[in-house]
TrEMBL record:
Domain ABC transporter: 5-228
PANTHER family linked to this entry: ABC TRANSPORTER ATP-BINDING PROTEIN
Top-rank taxon, per record: Bacteria
Protein name: ABC-2 type transport system ATP-binding protein
Entry GO CC: plasma membrane
Cellular compartment(s): Cell membrane
Predominant subcellular localization, coarse grouping: membrane
Keywords assigned: Antibiotic resistance, ATP-binding, Nucleotide-binding, Transport
GO biological process: response to antibiotic
Record-linked Gene3D superfamilies: P-loop containing nucleotide triphosphate hydrolases
Amino acid sequence: MATAIAVHDLRKRYGDFEALKGVSFEVAQGEIFALLGANGAGKTTTMEILTGFRRPDGGSVRVLGLDPARDLARLRRHTGVMLQEAGFFPDLTVAQTVRTWQTFLTAPRRDVLEVTGLEGKADTKVRQLSGGEKRRLDLALALLGRPRVLFLDEPTAGMDPQARRATWNLIGELSAEGTTVLLTTHYLEEAQRLAASLAILNGGTVVASGSMAGTLAGRGGRVCFEPPDGAPLDELPLPAVLDENGRVVCRTADPDLAAQTLLGWAAERGVPLRGLEVRSATLEELFLDLAEEGTR
Ligand SMILES: Nc1ncnc2c1ncn2[C@@H]1O[C@H](COP(=O)(O)OP(=O)(O)OP(=O)(O)O)[C@@H](O)[C@H]1O
């Protein structure tokens, strides 16, 4: 598949502080890609360089084959951007804001208030919108120009669960129609649900990247079950601990094999393994493991 975004050995300093220390990743056309990391990891800096708001100190970035530092005007025609702080005019209504932006475009979308669930707020002044509604307006404006690439910096921050779900559906539909989406988020469930690929940044360096499924499978997983009657944990065929709910948890590189081993052991002893659950690592587990490894 064609590459929509290519980032190679990207570097950025703020004075003496190195915010990006050689970041590389690629996003395929039509893919949803999650850029993840703790506060200060370098996500917004990367996003700002990709959208032409900041210049890098080293490395290269290409969006649809264009360099945002040199071809910004051409690139703007094909990209939609939702950064963390939107610059709205507070005294315009929602509808006036959209109309103002539409005048800059040749064939703008006309349905952005409907798709972002803001049609009921058309006559409300921007200053009176809630935080989540402002995010939705920002998303509506990012969609106006039918972008081929969408940059979304924490798109669902402050949204209620219903608005968040509606936004996930919308992002999924846009990707299905061929829009490439690069998003950052602190909601790991959101990233796991939406993104086909990811990069996790830590202190300006990529500490994990690749397809979501492959990255999670590569971290192994866990098998959980109720403690078997009368069998102490140290008699189990695999190392195990009790979690906070009193369930037995075996963390393992190959959860399917571990489950087979445990079932064989239980059958031999004639003890049932109640509530058996076999699963890959979640993104949250991967994220927390990497954060812990980073502090060692
Ligand atoms: N204009 C600036 N001047 C100096 N330091 C900056 C500037 N912008 C960002 N930084 C620093 O660079 C680092 C990366 O910041 P960045 O905003 O890219 O992180 P982030 O991953 O987006 O974090 P968050 O999740 O909090 O949004 C941080 O340590 C931040 O303090």
